[in-house]
């Protein structure tokens, strides 16, 4: 068997497939596990923040996502948020605040061993929606909750 | 001084990791009340969690995570006594890491 030829063919097919995937916008090159994406955090509106982190802004609301956040946050500098989901194959979770100057607060890349669960504390400038975007099986699902903020926590 | 506190507990095959980091998490939008000058952004950008050397979770953070961040997540496949390692890096290039055994 001609090993070199086989290897060459294999690589060529692989490269071809990757290139076409990038061309089609299916694979965004910088979205590798753990790569920090400054552009996503610089995005000024919700949809561009979602598409910059998750590759697309097409998301459907899903009640399998549980978004736990207070109804009223007295202090916008510390708003506890917990996102969990009963979905399987969850690859990534993002927490977005619609009213913040840069809506994307954080995104989490989960390995297959992870449960769909993330809990943290975020800052909110003013009253607005907290949006949890969950990526499962390559599709985006979201849950939204409005949090009223009495004292803002972003600048001033 | 270690800037990271880690509590990891395994129960029914699922390990819950809770971690606290001490960091100012400046957004870069805040102004100094005396001088009126902007305080430069200084926040953690990336947190990595490793279980026995394998990355289980990566978090990318902006400035909108609260000061002295708290982070909790869950994963499967770890046993008591395994090591969990948390590493953070901030936008100033500083970083820290800590390791703890799962209880």
Features:
heterodimer, A: 156 residues, alpha+beta, Immunoglobulin-like, 2 domains, six-stranded mixed beta sheet, three-stranded antiparallel beta sheet, 3 helices, 9 strands, elongated, B: 103 residues, mainly beta, four-stranded antiparallel beta sheet
Detailed description of the structure:
- The complex is a heterodimer of chains A (156) and B (103).
- Chain A is of the alpha+beta class.
- Chain A is built from three helices and nine strands; from the N terminus they run αααβββββββββ.
- In chain A, β8 (128-136) and β9 form a beta hairpin.
- The relative contact order of chain A is 0.19.
- Mean pLDDT of chain A is 77; it is low at 21-34.
- With 103 residues, chain B is mainly beta.
- Chain B has a single domain (4-101), classed as Immunoglobulins (Immunoglobulin-like).
- Chain B has strands spanning 4-11, 14-21, 44-51, 54-61, 70-76, 83-90, 95-101.
- Chain B has a four-stranded antiparallel sheet with strand order 4-3-6-7, with no helix packed on it.
- In chain B, β6 and β7 form a beta hairpin.
- Chain B is elongated and about 55 Å long.
- Chain B starts with a strand and ends with a strand.
- The chains are: A alpha+beta (156), B mainly beta (103).
- Chains A and B meet through β4, β6 and β7 of A and β3, β4 and β5 of B.
Write the layout of secondary structure elements.
The complex is a heterodimer of chains A (156) and B (103).
Chain A: H1 3-23, H2 38-42, H3 46-54, E1 59-61, E2 65-68, E3 72-75, E4 79-85, E5 90-97, E6 104-110, E7 114-122, E8 128-136, E9 139-151
Parallel strand pairs in A: 1-9, 3-9
Antiparallel strand pairs in A: 2-4, 4-7, 5-6, 5-8, 8-9
Chain B: E1 4-11, E2 14-21, E3 44-51, E4 54-61, E5 70-76, E6 83-90, E7 95-101
Antiparallel strand pairs in B: 1-2, 2-5, 3-4, 3-6, 6-7
């Amino acid at each position: 068997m001609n090993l070199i030829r086989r290897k060459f063919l294999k690589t060529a097919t692989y490269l071809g497939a990757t290139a076409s995937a990038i061309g089609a916008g299916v694979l965004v090159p910088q979205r590798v596990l753990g790569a920090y994406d400054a552009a996503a955090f610089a995005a000024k509106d919700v949809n561009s923040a979602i598409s910059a982190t998750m590759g697309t802004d097409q998301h459907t609301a899903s009640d399998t996502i549980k978004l736990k956040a207070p109804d009223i946050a007295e202090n916008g500098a510390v708003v506890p948020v917990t996102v969990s989901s009963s979905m399987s194959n969850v690859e990534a979770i993002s927490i977005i605040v619609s009213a913040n100057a840069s809506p994307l607060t954080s995104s989490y890349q989960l390995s297959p061993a992870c449960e769909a669960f993330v809990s943290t504390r975020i800052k909110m400038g003013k009253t607005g929606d907290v949006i949890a975007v969950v990526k499962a099986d390559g599709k985006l699902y979201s849950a939204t909750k409005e949090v009223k903020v009495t004292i803002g926590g972003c600048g001033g | 001084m270690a800037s990271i506190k880690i509590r990891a507990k395994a129960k029914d095959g699922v390990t819950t990791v809770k971690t606290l980091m001490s960091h100012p998490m400046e957004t870069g939008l805040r102004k100094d009340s005396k001088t009126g000058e902007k305080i430069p952004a200084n926040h953690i950008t990336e947190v990595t969690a490793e279980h026995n050397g394998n990355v289980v979770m990566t978090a990318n953070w902006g400035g909108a995570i609260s000061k002295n961040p708290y982070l909790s997540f869950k994963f499967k496949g770890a046993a008591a006594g395994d090591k969990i390692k948390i590493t953070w890096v901030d936008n100033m290039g500083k970083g820290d890491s800590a390791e703890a055994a799962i209880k």
